[in-house]
Every structure is written in C-alpha cells, then in structure tokens.
Design goal:
Order of helices and strands: HH
Radius of gyration: 22 Å
Helix content: over 70%
Number of helices: 2
Number of domains: 1
C-alpha cells in the first residue's frame, strides 16, 4: 500500500468519524476481521496463479528447448 493511499484512507476514516462516529468505530473493529476472512481467498489466488504459471512453462518448454527466444 502506497503512502498516498494510506493517507487517503486515514483522511476518509476521520471524515467518517466526524460524520458518523458509531459507523467509524464499527469499521475500525470489522476491517481487521474482514482482512482475516479474506486471507484464504488471497492464498487460493496465489496458488491458482502459480499453477497457471507452471502449466504455461510446461507448454512452452518444447519451444524453449528448440531455441525460441522472445524479443
């Protein structure tokens, strides 16, 4: 996460705190829980991406062995 997006997120949270403080506190409590819930889905996405990279490597292996080079 870049510094600018972190700053915008912090400013947005402070605006929400001023406008509706119960919702801001609820967001402060629920966001770490949502992050924990999303971790298995992120890991599954990493595994699927690795499997596709392995399949692509296996499919292009004969061409690489025959001397094909990308430009």
């Amino acid at each position: 996460m870049s510094a600018m997006s972190l700053l915008l997120l912090l400013i947005g949270w402070f605006v929400l705190l001023v406008v509706c403080w119960p919702l801001a506190l609820l967001a402060l409590v629920l966001l770490p829980l949502l992050w924990l819930i999303s971790l298995p889905f992120r890991l599954a996405a990493i595994v699927v991406e690795a499997v596709f990279a392995l399949i692509r490597t296996l499919l292009f292996l004969p061409a690489r062995l025959l001397g094909y080079r990308r430009n």
